[in-house]
Design a protein that fits this description.
The protein is α+β, with helices and mostly antiparallel strands and about 130 residues long. It contains four helices and five strands; from the N terminus they run E-H-H-E-E-H-H-E-E. A five-stranded antiparallel sheet has the order 1-2-3-5-4, covered by helices on one side. A hairpin with a 2-residue loop joins strand 2 (about 60-70) and strand 3. Helix 1 packs antiparallel against helix 2 (about 35-55). The radius of gyration is 14 Å and the shape is globular.
Length: about 130
């Protein structure tokens, strides 16, 4: 799979969640990340894609391959215009779930990546950005 260094993918169906995993795998391979690091980034992307679809009512994943000096990285942004997260601190607590899931999504994703940023508020959607550096 050939992939651009910058791009956007809609997250409006289960097929888009699958496509997001395939895209992130290709980007991780482009950066020559180890298999362990690829798995971590793909897992985090899968969780966040699913959250965007289920809790945000759909949205998009944007990506960018970064180069800072000799250092390479991958940043992924998951964005929706859904209901937002009423209690962000609670949502970032291990074991908490807003539905029937295991409550591993946001805090689990944070542990899998190098950098994790989240911005959400009721009525204005959610944006999560994750970065993995090589």
């Amino acid at each position: 799979m050939s992939v651009e260094r910058v791009g956007t993918l809609p997250l409006a169906s289960e097929q888009h969640v699958v496509a997001s995993r395939q895209t992130v795998r290709a980007l991780c391979q482009l950066l020559k990340l180890s298999l362990v690091e690829q798995t971590k980034m793909i897992t985090a992307a899968s969780e966040l894609s699913r959250n965007t679809l289920i809790h945000g009512g759909g949205g998009r994943m944007r990506w960018e391959v970064l180069q800072v000096g000799l250092r390479m990285g991958l940043v992924l942004h998951f964005e929706d215009e859904g209901p937002g997260i009423a209690d962000l601190k609670l949502a970032m607590t291990d074991g908490w779930t807003s539905g029937s899931g295991m409550g591993l999504g946001l805090p689990g994703s944070k542990r899998l990546v190098g950098d994790f940023e989240i911005d959400s508020a009721p009525g204005r959607g959610t944006r999560v950005s994750i970065t993995k550096w090589k």
